[in-house]
Design a protein that fits this description.
Elements (H helix, E strand, L loop, with lengths): L2 H22 L5 H16 L7 H9 L5 H15 L6 H27 L1
Helix pairs in contact: 1-2, 3-5, 4-5
Amino acid sequence: MNNRDTRKKQVYDELATLVYESYHQGRLSSAEMLFLLEILETVVAGGRAGPLLPYLRRWVATKAGSREQHDISAIIKATVVNTDFGDAASVTNTAGIIRDLVEELEKLSDSAGEK
């Protein structure tokens, strides 16, 4: 095993442990835990979540203050949790949906910042 593979396994193990501990501390539901472990496995094994990751990063960076923003975030969360990461078409479809929702969330955040 080369250094890159060793580091990849170490990061995978640390993230999986963090997800598992977060579940047992009550910070994640079982569905959220399973989703995070599945996406972690998918990214490490085959990178199929690739088109979705930039939109997830933008979503996490967006602050949800209004009720509408919270509702959009809940839709994003439910959509992502129910994505079949073993199916490339499902991931691509989800990426498009999440992109549109994140753009709407960003517009709402921008307009809230102007007030």
